[in-house]
Amino acid sequence: MHSTRQPRSLIRPCSTRTAGWLGAVLALVSVAAGLPGLNEVGVTWDEPRYFQSAERIQAWTALATSGDLAAAMDPDAIREAWDSDRFYNPHPPVYKVGMALTDAMFGRWLPRPGSFRLSSLIAFGLLVGLVAGLTGRLASVTAGAAAGLALLGMPRVFGHAHVAATDMPLTFLWFAGTMGAFLHVRDGRRRWILLSGIAMGLGFATKFTAFLLPVPLVAWMLLVAHERRAWQAALYGLALALLVAALVNPSAWLDPIGYQKRLIHESLSRDFSIPISTFYAGRIYPYVVPWHEAIVMTFITVPIATLVLAAGGLRTAFRRGPVRSLAVLCVLQIGFWWALLALPSSPNHDGVRLWLPMFPFLAILAGLGLEQLAGLVERRIGAERPAVLVALLGLLFFLPAALGTVRVAPYYLSYYGELIGGPSGAARRGMEATYWFDAVTAGFRDRLQETLPDGARVVAYPNAEYYELLQGMGLLRKDLSFTQVPPADYLLLLGRKAMLERGWETIYQRARPLLAVELDGVELVGLYAWSDGTNEAGEPAEAEAP
After folding, report:
1. How far apart are CA 332 and CA 329, in angstroms?
2. I need a surface site. Which of 103, 416, 456, 518 has the fewest CB within 10 A?
3. 431-464 residue pLDDT tens
């Protein structure tokens, strides 16, 4: 006779208090996990200019609070602090305000660039906490804990928590804005639409991509929201978002319409102004990549255990039950990002960072999948201790991801999962090994300076200015001379294959570097000797092991 005993209470929505504690614990765990490595990840390509912008915002704020408000409100002062260097730094300022705040508050204890990067790590911690807490409140403690751990265990997402850029703040604000609207439709409380409007507005003032947030949300509302009040509240939330975006962006105060027109033009014309190339499946694509690139990259950069759980959670979207609406929202979000990036007009460079806001919803599906699995196993084996059962299942699915994250540190952005055979398998199959200079770690910089003699001239490819910016930050010796014009004493080569011209590609493939950063046998960055005007093999590589 089959047992009719129902699954124990662990598999059901938890109280608001329990969900709050769950979210808070995982948020703290996430920040604590990322804090020791904030200065280990190499300064990425975009960060130096963002650091400079944050410093200008700090100076402007000091001027505005010193009593000389008139000087601070001068249009030239506003442009200099909030809107300068647009070619390299065209984004709205909220994420830079976050960087300026954490540097001002914690810079005494945390050296730069970590003090700037702390803003992204805090955003990541809040994101993990929200994912865990809200999933716990809507589904179960099991699903909530699993969703938070699934997100924490995505190495590439965790890596972006170590970078002071637009992507992690946008991801947090996208999720908060979406879930605020979701909760309002679910229970009708006005505070949720207020949260959604504020988060959405801050997202608008972080990156142009945030203006697309209403699209998948409207698609979800068309399926589930049949009450007029829900649509009215959505309009109020959007109006609030536009107001918040204008209030927190001094650049828009001077010429609101002109600023928005320029932002839209710059964001939609990057295929002409900054046509960044992508190396994918053994080919270099100047701007437009195959429609399936984002889908493939998602599958090969997420741990396989998380993908398996997410596939299980996907079933929830097609079954009646209290969490079906949440699962449908997650499916629509994932489908939206994949469809958006399949468009010929969409940029797809730089790994997965341009669709980073998709991954929290994938993590929720993984959480729902573990809940489904735990319930199934409990019913089959008649477990008397579901907490132990869930803990064992969690260990089985999330320990490999955690170990994978530790194994690739601090080269998180070069992680590839089991489906493609890790970084070495990805390299054999024509995938980009590195792209953002994060492989130029503090350890490699130290060894570089020990190796290069005084006054050495170095051809640095693909970007010599990057190293000059590091010199300005005090991270490299100033007697070194970096250029992109050969010949020189040495060649410093980033293994970004999309930007390797024929000569540099030959050196990368055949020559032996004096120093190298390697991950799973794949060279990420290397220093080569330059002899008699030709690139020849140096001494055997002294690889920096992860």
Report:
1. 5
2. 456
3. 999 999 999 999 999 999 999 999 999 999 999 9
